[in-house]
Amino acid sequence: MNMEIAFSPGITTCPKCGSKLVLYKTERRIVKSTGYTFTAVHRPMMCRHDGTVFRSERISEIVSPHCTYANDVMLESSVMRYIEGRSSSEIALDLHNGISERHVRNLGIMALDIFPAIHEDNMEKLKSAVHSYILQIDGTTDSEFSMIVVVRDVLSDFVLHAERCSSESHENIKSVLQVVKNRFGDPSGITSDMRSGIISAARETFPG
Ligand SMILES: [Zn+2]
């Protein structure tokens, strides 16, 4: 079954000059999502008066301009890769949509840049949601990038900060904790798996 989903900008007149928009062109492309494959029919519109082209924002939220695989594939494969700790080849097989092991690996690498950027963009929202927090700090090893240090609030389960580090050294942990302190203040409690480097870094950053 070939499902078609239509996309167009949600406006009918030009926000700049108020003129009526006319169809600019029709673009059809195959998009593979985690659950299904569909044909995206995108109809950008053009201002009749000044020629400005308006594209659908919705489609750019769903899939990157030159990618066949929808953004949810990146999200799902990154959860399997970094949270469940599975290999790229296993994930490729499991997704059942023809994606290659290499592509899964590339999406995982892209995700390590994109997700922190989304996190930073939403920092004010996060700050306003976190008042009192209990800090939990953990390191996750990654075969390609050595180590990702994750600082989480136990109460809300929000990730406060995550950073790629070369190792779980005292200095690295301290600099990660300093970022958290600057943004969220002192925690009301600290938990960790109690490795000595983490404990001493936490004591120095949050004395008392
Ligand atoms: Zn216009």
What does this structure look like?
A hairpin with a 5-residue loop joins strand 5 and strand 6 (53-54). The longest helix is centred in the middle third of the chain and has 21 residues, at 101-121. This protein is 38% helix and 25% strand. It is an alpha+beta fold. It has helices at 57-62, 71-83, 88-95, 101-121, 123-129, 170-184, 196-205, and strands spanning 3-7, 21-23, 27-32, 37-42, 45-47, 53-54, 134-142, 146-153, 159-165, 189-192. The chain is built from 7 helices and 10 strands. It has a 4-stranded mixed sheet with strand order 9-8-7-10, covered by helices on one side. The chain has a 3-stranded mixed sheet with strand order 1-4-3, with no helix packed on it. It has 3 domains: 3-62, no CATH class; 71-121; 123-205, Ribonuclease H-like superfamily/Ribonuclease H (Nucleotidyltransferase, domain 5). The mean pLDDT is 88. Zinc ion binds at residues 14, 16-17, 19, 47, 49-50, 52.
Jot down its keywords.
single chain; about 210 residues; alpha+beta; Nucleotidyltransferase, domain 5; 3 domains; four-stranded mixed beta sheet; three-stranded mixed beta sheet; 7 helices; about 25% strand; flat; binds zinc ion
Overview in brief:
This protein is 38% helix and 25% strand. The chain is an alpha+beta fold and 208 residues long. It has three domains: 60 residues, no CATH class; 51 residues; 83 residues, Nucleotidyltransferase, domain 5 (2-Layer Sandwich), CATH 3.30.420.
- Stretches where pLDDT is under 50 for at least 5 consecutive residues are none
Bound molecules: zinc ion
CATH fold field value of the largest domain: Nucleotidyltransferase, domain 5
Q: Helical segment tally? A: 7
List SSEs in N-to-C order: EEEEEEHHHHHEEEHEH
CATH-defined architecture of the largest domain: 2-Layer Sandwich
Helix content: 25-40%
Would you tell me the structural class of the helices and strands? alpha+beta
What is the CA-based Rg, rounded? 22 Å
Strand coverage percent: 25-35%
Q: In CATH, what is the class of the largest domain?
A: Alpha Beta
Alpha-carbon distance between the two ends = 63 Å
Shape: flat
* pLDDT averaged residue by residue: 88
Q: Could you give the order of strands across the largest sheet?
A: 9-8-7-10
Major sheet: 4 strands, mixed
Protein name: MULE transposase, conserved domain protein
Organism: mine drainage metagenome
